[in-house]
Model the fold of this input.
Amino acid sequence: MHKPSMGAVIVGLIPFVAMCFTVSLWDRIYPIVFGLPFNIFWLCAWVLITPLCMWLAYNIEQAHLKEEHPDE
Amino acid sequence: MSNSAIALTVISIIIAFGSILGFYAGARHKMNLEQWTVAGRGFGLLLVWLLMAGEIYTTFAFLGASGWAYSRGGPTLYILAYMTLAYVTSFYILPQIWEIGNKYGMQTQSDFFHKRYGSMPLAALVSLIGVVFIVPYLQLQLTGLGIIVEVSSFGGIGRVPAMLISFALVAGFVFASGIRAVAWVSVVKDILMLFAAVFLGIGLPYVYFGGIPEMFTALINSKPEHLIMPGSTKVMGHSWYISTVLLTSLGFYMWPHIFGATFTAKCGNTLRRNAIIMPLYTITMPLIFFVGFAALMTIPGLSNGDLALLTIVRETYPAWFLGLIGGAGALTAMVPAAILILAAATLFAKNFYKPLFSPDMTDEKVAKLAKILVLVITSISLYFAIFSSSTLVALLLLGYAGVTQFFPGVILGLYWKRVTTTGVFTGIITGIAIVAYLVLNKMDPFMGLNAGFLALCINFILTVLVSLATEVKVNGFQELQSKEATKL
Done:
């Protein structure tokens, strides 16, 4: 069974920090961005950034998988 | 034709269209147990994506999320975070679960526990808990369908008859189809839902306020506290948010039906690629919140927030349009309900009844029993739907509090060789006991934390401590865990 690499795990923690643990930093109405209260804007932004993080994690994993099976 | 007749006719046409599509999709394949439940393990990226996306676009997202935005405000934002983070979590567990499932021919979550921990009672317990906590999720879908029929008939069809109609629709849909059919009807449902979210989320603020920024300006001027946590509640502050987001994002793939859907994938990398694109599915959720906010300022004082979306549509648009939205909503309830019922019935028949009471049952008999259980489980959910008044979101959170108790057993089973059967047993039973105690005594949230999360923490610690104190007797994944990946 293939275990996720440390690099991929760390990249995956970024969205958790941004959308969950730091809530008291961004749960505010101001500044209003694109007409949205800041907390809603912040979460929407991270919905869009998260796929980028996962794309990075995917590439790290693929490199890691190749290292384990250089012949495939 | 009266308004209610128009709305109900449009809804019926959409439901009929969805059901016929489902029937044809199912009819092309011979329905043995494996086809009915995991569709012969042959789904590629597209179908797995649809099936799993079908899991989040449910009545919960449609009526429940707008309902909470209306009645609770700020705390509703947890939905945006948890849906996104659930997919992040999936990247680190699903490919592994798939690899193991593929090697040992697993169909259900209970099979996973059975193989890993070599204990039939543990596997049976897992399936029983899974079925029990699917009931509130199913109740949520039936309640949602009932609300749709009730509002669209302009109150002409009462709550109880509306629920009975929903029950008949859902049970009929399940019998006529199977998982493959459900995946294809998901396509129709998701397109309709996307259309509804964009149209209403942008349209309603525009109609009443002149645009989304203008709507927020009005809301900030009148009720600024509604927009941040704890919103219009007293107890749902930041610690509630963090604990709830963790509980639900870690627990999303612990649902027996979603865990089981993993096995329908063609390869592990399908699931990794899914984790990249799936978070984008969440982007329509803020639009649904906007509907709730718009309703709060235009039709305040509704007895039940879950009525907000349909009521504001009814007040704003012509009856045929209400029918269109109602029809979309009906499919977003029926498709997930069908998936839930299929999973619960199969799980109970195959992993609880058969091993405990009748080990020599044939697959054919198991399938027959599963079909009877479809009626039993749906009836139980119907009973609760008629006699309970929980909000849709509260029902889902109750389900999560239960199923997330599997998380330690799954994650440690995958990655920690030292975890023991006794440890997992102790953890799950304690976790469920704490959830039952806190929820039944209405002590959720407990000290500002989500009760299910508190139970999960204690469960995790106990699982580890008891494992360290006991000997490892069985590790069904030893072969796979000792030699590193054989194939992707």
